[in-house]
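Annex B. Sample input.
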Amino acid sequence: MAGLSEQVIYMDNNATSRIAPEVLDAMMPYLTELYGNPSSMHTFGGQVGQAINQARQEIADLLGAHPGEIVFTSCGTESDSTAIFSAIQSYPEKNHVVTTRVEHPAVKNLCDSLEIFTGRKYHTSRLPVAADGTLDLQRFKDSLTDETAIVSVMWANNETGVIFPVEEMAKIAKERGILFHTDAVQAVGKIPINLKETAIDFLSISGHKLHAPKGVGVLYVRKGTPFVPFLNGGHQEHGRRGGTENVAAIVGLGKACKLAADKMEEENTRVRALRDKLEKGLLTTIPKSLLNGHPEQRLPNTANISFEYVEGESILLHMNQYNICASSGSACTSGSLEPSHVLRAMGVPFTAAHGSIRFSLSVYNTEEEVDFVLEKMPAIITKLRAMSPFWEGN
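Annex B, continued. Sample output.
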């Protein structure tokens, strides 16, 4: 396994994923000879428009949706903002949003901004989570009021992989006449989704999380849902999102969704087995380590593990010496001394929250890579703890 130290061992797929070779091949013609504007009347542009329609169908197939319910955006963040702003503009008499304390910043910071920049006209209920990262459905029901314009709850948490019961939550919201949005950026392509069987009104996707390029996303808008565009301009996307389409990226996302459907079983068997081996190995060989998140109610690719009395960024720097890529659950890497807001919401002890590492695998990871990480990690943690003034004996 010594040769692996010269290769990149990429276990940070919840941050971004490599473009699948098949996706790149599908994109290339639209970056070279097929450069026409899909809105043009001539055949040269028309064939590009047909490629967008095919991609729309491929994405709808993965989601169990109708192609007409797929709106292309630039990213998951734009999709999230579009859904929430659409809801509050569709129901101006309502001024309440329900979300969770563990949302991605794309939703968390938007809700904060709504309160700050509108003079507190809008207020947000942020649902707490249990120690294992799960939500209390009764508490969710109790949070809904006649003033609630929209509920926005992620399908799966980006840090812990914990899956939320969004299908049941959407049904509850529907019974109260409340719109429901889910940021499904981490869930799409990893677990089966059939929107025809749900009451979900809006769903967000980001292409680069499922082996498509960066700079493309999707907002699913259920047929009949009140909708106000976030970007006004031309007639693109049937007037729902102005701007000339990012054709190559859209084609790539369509291909990526088709691949994800084909590899869903592998994601939930082989990738899950690799994740479980990595997780079990780290927890059994490294003392004072703990799993963050529900042991079962989780994405098949994600393991968030805390190593007490060490700093996450120090662990990552030592892992980087072996070309092992992962993420820290601590926000220290962005210049803050505060640990992750997700782990804080879960009540993870301060001694552990700063030393959390998120490993997120994909179909491109191998057992040999997992073995290499398990070989290197114990020595890394031992070395860092020896320098820690908080470690036992120091």
